[in-house]
Amino acid sequence: MSRVVVDVVLKPEISDPQGQAVLGALGRLGHDSITSVRQGKHFVLEVDGTPDEAELKQIAETLLANPVIEDVELHLPTD
Amino acid sequence: MRIGVITFPGSLDDVDAARAVRLAGGDPISLWHADHDLKDVDAVVLPGGFSYGDYLRAGAIAARAPLMQDVVDRAKQGMPVLGICNGFQVLCEAGLLPGALTRNSHLHFRNRDQVLQVERADTSWTHAYETGQRIVIPVKNGEGRYVAADADLDRLEGEGRVVFRYVGGNPNGSSRDIAGVTGADGRVVGLMPHPEHAIEDLTGPSTDGLGFFTSVLKAVVSA
After folding, report:
1. B3 with B21: CB under 8 angstroms?
2. CB distance from A58 to chain B under 8 Å?
3. Which residue, among B190, B207, B223, has the nearest Cα to B84 in the 3D structure?
4. pLDDT tens per residue, chain B (223 residues)?
5. What ipTM was reported for this prediction?
């Protein structure tokens, strides 16, 4: 069993009102040094056997993320 | 004329869409997302709602439902398809329409009667209107902000793919006030507002939505 992590975040050119709402809250709490927040999704996949990188890339790019508006990063086990 | 209405788990407006088809003079045919059976329909409506709870992204899981592969194949052969609200999100996720719908810019669910300007009166679903005509139909969504890269928006506008724009206030922060778009052949149309909720004076703000359904009946006859 191995663990694969996929991170998905809106592309820089797509505005992120959820991240902006978090940024507003941080400002109200006095954390003035934070200048930007982008909110995304973090998927943890348990995989039987050795992960097939091509298959996982396909899963990440065609289901977990919408490439029209989101960037995706695949993190395979490094052992 | 057989007009299919797909029900996904979490669809809400499939019954209203079927009623709109009937009032327009067509035969509404119920379709189930998990079947590989389009039941010989001439056109398909994807209704509003929250398919699969809108988990992952709005419309994302529904776009991979078994019946959607059949819809995509038939749409590529010219079958008219209308996606309303969640149905529009599904069509974008399925790659039948460009762009994507995401969280409203103000983060609130917005529910109101909305003025739209018809930009294209030559699609399978808008023949009953005139270019430049203004219609009033309800809009109700939390993830209705139409987005795409600027270069893609320029290309869509250049190709005349914008079918409707919001007038008198943009309810969700959609890029360039875009409320609905069409595919390259003018047969697949998606929009966030709900024409099926504006077909009778008793229950809607107008009867302006009925034209979607009368349009497709004529489009299918002439095809």
Report:
1. yes
2. no
3. B190
4. 999 999 999 999 999 999 999 999 999 999 999 999 999 999 999 999 999 999 999 999 999 999 999 999 999 999 999 999 999 999 999 999 999 999 999 999 999 999 999 999 999 999 999 999 999 999 999 999 999 999 999 999 999 999 999 999 999 999 999 999 999 999 999 999 999 999 999 999 999 999 999 999 998 877 6
5. 0.86
Under a CB-based contact definition with an 8 Å cutoff, are residues B6 and B45 in contact? yes
Interatomic CA distance for residues B126 and B145, integer angstroms: 22
CB spacing of A63 vs B60 below 8 angstroms: yes
The domain segmentation of chain B, as residue ranges, is 2-222
Kind plus residue range of the DSSP H or E element containing A19: helix A17-28
Q: Which residue of B has its CA nearest to A39?
A: B103
- Which candidate from B98, B107, B147 shows the least CB-CB separation from A14? B147
Architecture of domain A2-75: 2-Layer Sandwich (3.30)
The answer to whether B38 and B46 have CB atoms below 8 angstroms apart is no
The residue count of chain B comes to: 223
Q: What residues of B are annotated to the active site?
A: 85, 194, 196
Angle at B30 between CA B26 and CA B34, to 5 degrees: 145
Q: Does domain B2-222 have CATH number 3.40.50.880?
A: yes
